[in-house]
Amino acid sequence: MSAINPLKPSERMKIPRQASIEQEAVVRAHNFEEVSWGLDEARALLESTRCLECKDPVCIPGCPVNVDIRSFLQLVMQKDYVGAVNKIRETNYLPAICGRVCPQEEQCEAVCTMGKKHPSIAIGKLERFVADYEIQHDLFVAPVVTEHRDEKVAIVGAGPSGLTCAAELAKMGYKVTIFEALHAAGGVLRYGIPEFRLPRKILDVEVNRIKALGVEIYTNFLVGRTATIDELFGEWGFSAIFLGTGAGTPTFMGIPGESLSGVYSANEFLTRVNLMKAYRFPEYDTPVHVGNEVAVIGGGNTAMDAVRTAKRLGADKAYLIYRRSRDEMPARLEEIHHAEEEGIEFHLLTNPTRIVGDANNWVCGIECLRMELGEPDESGRRKPIPVKGSEFVLPVQAVVEAVGQSPNPIVQSTTPGLNTGKKGIVVVDDVQMTSRPGVFAGGDLARGGATVILAMRDGKIAADAIHKYLEQKRTGGNGQAATA
Amino acid sequence: MYPIVHTSVLAPTITKFVIKAPFVAKKRLPGNFVIVRVEENGERIPLTIVDSDNAHGTITLIVQAIGKTTRLMATKHAGDALVDVAGPLGNPTPILEGKTVACVGGGVGTAELYPITKALQAAGNTVHTVIGARSKDLVILENEMTDCSNHIVVTTDDGSYGRKGFVTDALKEIIESSPEITAVYAIGPLPMMKAVSNLTKNYSKKTYVSLNAVMVDGTGMCGGCRVTVDGKMKFACVDGPEFDGHRVDFDELIMRNRTYVAAEKISMNQYERECACKAKEVAA
Ligand SMILES: Cc1cc2nc3c(=O)[nH]c(=O)nc-3n(C[C@H](O)[C@H](O)[C@H](O)COP(=O)(O)OP(=O)(O)OC[C@H]3O[C@@H](n4cnc5c(N)ncnc54)[C@H](O)[C@@H]3O)c2cc1C
Ligand SMILES: Cc1cc2nc3c(=O)[nH]c(=O)nc-3n(C[C@H](O)[C@H](O)[C@H](O)COP(=O)(O)OP(=O)(O)OC[C@H]3O[C@@H](n4cnc5c(N)ncnc54)[C@H](O)[C@@H]3O)c2cc1C
Ligand code: SF4
Ligand code: SF4
Ligand code: FES
Predict the structure, then answer these.
(1) What is the pLDDT of residue B72?
(2) How far, in Å, CA of A267 to CA of A190, rounded?
(3) Each residue of B11-50: pLDDT tens digit?
(4) Is the pLDDT of residue B227 over 50?
(5) Candidates A221, A265, A289; nearest CB to B222
(6) Which chain B residues are closer than 8 Å to A226 by Cβ?
(7) pLDDT above 70 as % of chain A
(8) Of the four listed, A164, A338, B137, B166, which is most buried by Cβ atoms within 10 Å?
């Protein structure tokens, strides 16, 4: 834990937090290129020297997968960027992704000691810098898997939880196969989060690194239909299974007009644009519709992504309609800022009541009510109450609903003995084991909607638990004790 | 990649494909469909699994070329491959046993109906079949359907083959002469399924229709395929594709299916331009 930083703490505190280089808002609002280019080497070096090298690095427990932040920052200070990224990779196999999409301000950076009096260290941006450096200079060397184990483990779903669980198990020497329903791996990282926040190039690199560990990925394979969990155990010969199928079923508000043409769930809208590349129609075959004015309903990351995507698809006016105030928005702060800069119009304390259609069954407007904040509800947030008689109609030609998602029920309904709770969320114990021995689950499927890093955390915990479970089985136990 | 092992033209614009997709072949049941992507930049389209051969690991698809993607698919031959085939998707059709039923197919819907008719006959039902097409050259699978039906009527809109008229005319007679019919299975264009459902409602005959909503993923993830059944929102890909025809809001679905007409034209025009260019290259 020796100190590396040549600067005195007082000097470090004088250095301003280094900002990333970004595309100008007026330009980027019309393209799908990445918004932020991150830190350049000079800024990254300077930023790393702001770290106080705390004796008690509280940033580490602030990270859901406990990245050894202090050590990786010290490696950055020494210009050992590859060493730094490998340090991160000890606990986080997708650094180029987390550096971009983690809500750092609520995690590692929220607790950083520097943050008490000054802006906290830009941990996420530095994570991204070293990961990108390694990609740009093609310096990645796949970890050598020394041990080989006979058991086969199946991973259902190629989202961040499944990919992480697969990587961890492959490193331990297991034969790992991922089954993914769509034609490409990545989960929400592929179909939900837009290219301008997470370039597909980066995602492809990270997925290929998981394949480089010997993990096999079967796409177009919908577990529950193409094969059931019991078949994977039986004829397919898997010894343990991890479920990381996410929370992909969209919720609709249930207001009149939702079947009009031009009304989308955020999932459909984003899938058309991201997975199917509708923003390059007709070069790519899948179309998507926006029109001049579009309304996106919701206040989370999904809503923010959808509304910024709509703007980029050419909408003159892209509205975000949210029933609470800006402070209650669950989206990452950075995304809210970026949306505002890009000219997204926020209609806060506003709740849609009806979607209005024209004679051809196309959306032509959305009727909303103004809201005011009342007493805090169960979630601790102040409850929005409608203001009587405040209805108004916004003219729009497309509506995107980003009002929540729940787990896809296909696996649950075809797997006897798999217990689920509220909204079909799969029940797991503290090491991610479900009610079915040998079946583990994590990520949005077990949480109902969370973050990339929490999904990864679950995948890692499950990988360790699967390892213990299989060792136990190997030595004659039934595997149950492993989770006790 | 999913190799195409055989193709044959059944009628102008209608092609049969036999495709290697062993996992799908193994699990598929009548009524299931697959989502196909023909080429890398392509869209995902749903196609019914008409037949399968588990021993050879193949499935049969019958496709009518009506737009960009299906026309592109029609240019593929044995030795080519499709980039993606995902399935089997959707719920299998409920197959009654030992009853009398009617099967009604319109256009390429006859292909989608074929596996169901076969299963119904295998389950000991007496099967009355009506297949309809616009004209003689568009009648498909007549022999196959005859083989699995106790009684079959072919109708054409223009009278160029079989009986002149719509499938509903023939169905009405069948229901009236065979009141023991307990269920009707209808697959075809939406207006046809709507007409069949309106007819069978008068006779209180349970009617299964297969809804061809526009799909993207086919796994319940996008909600684009939503339809209204009995006043409730359903996703055709996971809750269907078959529903009780008496409870389906057909008019809404007919409107929804027009959503991308303008975009489909752009796609088609661009495709035709590209085809013309390619033809010139070949000629040169
Ligand atoms: C638009 C959007 C933006 C977001 N932005 C952020 C952000 O900035 N930062 C952040 O931390 N989090 C963000 N999130 C949340 C984050 O993406 C999720 O919490 C995370 O992806 C969950 O990972 P997962 O592995 O549980 O599942 P998912 O990423 O949902 O992946 C599940 C995968 O399983 C597949 N699958 C489903 N069923 C089956 C089956 N039966 N058989 C085979 N495969 C199946 C799916 O096709 C999918 O590929 C965002 C979410 C959305 C929707
Ligand atoms: C469950 C199901 C099973 C089907 N089975 C068959 C089959 O066995 N044989 C067959 O020939 N056709 C079948 N279809 C219809 C087939 O999917 C469409 O003809 C095809 O998608 C048209 O694509 P295109 O690009 O050639 O035409 P386009 O020009 O894009 O579209 C023509 C029309 O097809 C419909 N359509 C377009 N895109 C889609 C889509 N992604 N999903 C569904 N419908 C769409 C729309 O109504 C549209 O107006 C089925 C549809 C469904 C939903
Ligand atoms: S993984 Fe996320 S939370 Fe952990 S250190 Fe990196 S940015 Fe922070
Ligand atoms: S808490 Fe902040 S200042 Fe302290 S070691 Fe971690 S990153 Fe550096
Ligand atoms: S096609 Fe996406 S939910 Fe049915």
Answers:
(1) 93
(2) 11
(3) 889 999 999 999 999 999 999 999 999 999 999 999 999 9
(4) yes
(5) A265
(6) 23-24, 27, 86-88
(7) 98
(8) A164
Q: Which residues line ligand 5 (CB under 6 A)?
A: B 215-218, 220-225, 235, 237
Q: Is B237 within 8 Å of chain A by CB?
A: no
pLDDT above 90: percentage of residues in chain A: 83
pLDDT at A483: 45
User: Does the pLDDT of residue B196 top 60, yes or no?
Assistant: yes
- What residues does ligand 2 touch, defined as CB less than 6 Å away? B 33, 43, 45-48, 62-64, 66-70, 108, 111-112, 212-215, 241, 257, 261, 264, 268
pLDDT confidence band for A408 (50 / 70 / 90): very high
Mean pLDDT calculated for residue range A413-425: 93
C-alpha B146: how far from chain center: 18
CA of A75 to the centre of ligand 4 (A): 14
Residue A477 — pLDDT band, cuts 50, 70, 90? low
Residue B263's pLDDT band, with cuts at 50, 70 and 90, is confident
What span, in angstroms and rounded, lies between the C-alpha atoms of B19 and A207? 28
* A190 Cα: distance to centroid of ligand 1 (angstroms): 9
This prediction has a pTM of: 0.94
Sorted by where each starts, the structural domains of chain B and their CATH numbers stand as 2-89 (2.40.30.10), 100-256 (3.40.50.80)
Distance A99 CA to ligand 3 centre (A): 7
Task: Kindly list the residues from chain A whose CB atom is less than 8 angstroms away from the CB atom of residue B258.
Answer: 261, 360-361
